Amino acid sequence: MLKLILGTLSFNLSLQRVLWPISKLFWRHVLKHFGENARIMRGVEIICPHNVCIGKNVYIGKNCAIYGYNTISIGENSLIARDTIILTRGHIFNDPTTPIRDQGYNAAPISIGNDVWIGARVTILPGVNIGNGSVVAAGSIVNKDVPEYTVVGGSPAKTIKQRS
């Protein structure tokens, strides 16, 4: 018994098995849709979760930030690596005589297709659609649509190659 307690305190025994069922119940309750066998890791922040649909077998890595001020749809079997930011809203800044904070926001939905892999520390900006089977390289900033089965990377993200 002492070994079990010491293992737990030293994090040699994963508490994930204990906490995961509670986490799954929470996400099923607050998200618009939470697919079967989807996994949302520790430290993920989802603003306006009632606008977020997550398909089955989706994985969202640690410390991702998902801002659902508009609709966000994440397709089945997609993988989102840690520290990714998904933004559906940005500031309006057209009038230089008015403080930016007083000019309001532009919001647009984001759609991530099925079987998409998004690398670590990617930023996805409002209005972007990422097609089925696409790959977004780590550290990329995605500000335009990504066609199906396309590998993109960079800042801003550009086509690297097609998946064959």
From TrEMBL:
GO terms for cellular component: membrane. Keywords: Acyltransferase, Lipid A biosynthesis, Lipid biosynthesis, Lipid metabolism, Repeat, Transferase. GO terms for biological process: lipid A biosynthetic process. The keyword Lyase does not apply. InterPro entries: Hexapep (IPR001451), Hexapep_transf_CS (IPR018357), Hexapeptide_acetyltransf (IPR051159), Trimer_LpxA-like_sf (IPR011004). One of its GO terms (molecular function) is acyltransferase activity. The keyword Transmembrane helix does not apply. Belongs to the transferase hexapeptide repeat family. PANTHER family: ACETYLTRANSFERASE C18B11.09C-RELATED, SIALIC ACID SYNTHASE-RELATED. This is Acetyltransferase. It comes from Pseudomonas laurylsulfatiphila. The lineage of its organism: Bacteria, Pseudomonadati, Pseudomonadota, Gammaproteobacteria, Pseudomonadales.
